[in-house]
Amino acid sequence: MKVISEEITMQTNCCNDLVDITDQLKKILASTNLKRGILTIFIVGSTGAITTLEYEPGLIKDMQELYERLAPINKHYHHDDTWGDANGYSHVRASIQGSSLTVPFDDGRMTLGTWQQIVAINFDNKPRRRTIAINIIGE
Amino acid sequence: MKVISEEITMQTNCCNDLVDITDQLKKILASTNLKRGILTIFIVGSTGAITTLEYEPGLIKDMQELYERLAPINKHYHHDDTWGDANGYSHVRASIQGSSLTVPFDDGRMTLGTWQQIVAINFDNKPRRRTIAINIIGE
Amino acid sequence: MKVISEEITMQTNCCNDLVDITDQLKKILASTNLKRGILTIFIVGSTGAITTLEYEPGLIKDMQELYERLAPINKHYHHDDTWGDANGYSHVRASIQGSSLTVPFDDGRMTLGTWQQIVAINFDNKPRRRTIAINIIGE
């Protein structure tokens, strides 16, 4: 049994940038030579999120529209009174979507469906360099 | 310390079928004889989700009404322009609810509340045979 | 490699009480002397939730307003017909927010952002003593 820490860093765009990180995660998993276990993906920072999605342009727009219904950009947020950084909607969207995902792997492969990708989201109101912490436990 | 891969496959109904999988998970955990660790439950496919819920008919309806408020069936989805399979709402609901859950266990039992069940959801717009990947790490 | 079970119990207030448990989790992690692994946090009971949030008074209000948009207190819930305990909104909010979070740690520290706290939420319609199950796996 081994426990391995890894990290992905990447540049993301403003506001509602959904990035498919599945291939990077597959490469990291393959490099460990582990066969069976779990891979935990955690986005660092309170305006980012992780989820699974069929990553195609239509659904990306549909998710962005969902986030706009949940926490509209033009609404007033109390957070913006606190810091004046105008990203209250970013925090609210990130906290309801969630920052963490744990995926089993077996025979050296994550148990994803064919059209099920792992997606990191930058909700912040500016482009951000984002860090994603990865932990793999298995044998 | 051991790491064990398991799987549940089951037939589900159309659209918003919430299925209580707690008893199946308890049996799987008991069969491992592990006392302390974590159990990760991951639904395979991008129109399914996992959550916890007091599984009773009233709350099942309440959750279905929540999903309808979040992503109405009769709304237009860009995903349906892409593939024409009319299940845009299924994907959106699945991605906001989430595909993964990790539950600690101790003394051989999951740390669930008395009225807290683990529920798998088929959001797809047709009955589906669904696979749920299970990973157990512990001692 | 070790696997450790811990627990936090705490008194919470009614309805939408968000409690920052980050410092308690840091102390628990430090007491294990583990350097690398994952920490799983699971709230026991079907009217509680766990998420990450920049824990400041403005955002706490913003999240409470989000929960009110998602599942208004004054709406009719089928759950309340079942049990008459008038906390249907509490269950719905808890199930969409989620009961579980897994966070990697490395060099003995959780991979949290500077303004990213771990928050437990009591959605129930009365003050509650809540239990949070913690599992730590690592080396």
Which SSEs are present, and which pair or pack?
The structure is a homotrimer of 139-residue chains.
Chain A: E1 2-12, E2 17-20, H1 22-32, E3 37-43, E4 48-53, H2 57-70, H3 78-83, H4 88-97, E5 100-106, E6 109-110, E7 117-122, E8 128-138
Antiparallel strand pairs in A: 1-8, 2-7, 3-5, 3-8, 4-7, 5-6
Folded structure, characterized:
- The structure is a homotrimer of 139-residue chains.
- The first copy, chain A, has 139 residues and is α+β, with helices and mostly antiparallel strands.
- Chain A has a single domain (2-138), classed as YjbQ-like (Jelly Rolls, Sandwich).
- Chain A has helices at 22-32, 57-70, 78-83, 88-97, and strands at residues 2-12, 17-20, 37-43, 48-53, 100-106, 109-110, 117-122, 128-138.
- In chain A, strand 5 and strand 6 form a beta hairpin.
- The radius of gyration of chain A is 16 Å and the shape is elongated.
- Chain A starts with a strand and ends with a strand.
- Chain B binds chain C through residues 1, 36-38, 51-54, 56-59, 61-63, 66, 69-70, 96-98, 101-104, 106, 111-113, 115-117, 137-139, and chain C through 1, 3-5, 40, 42, 44-46, 70-71, 77-83, 88, 91-92, 94-96, 98-100, 102, 133-135, 137.
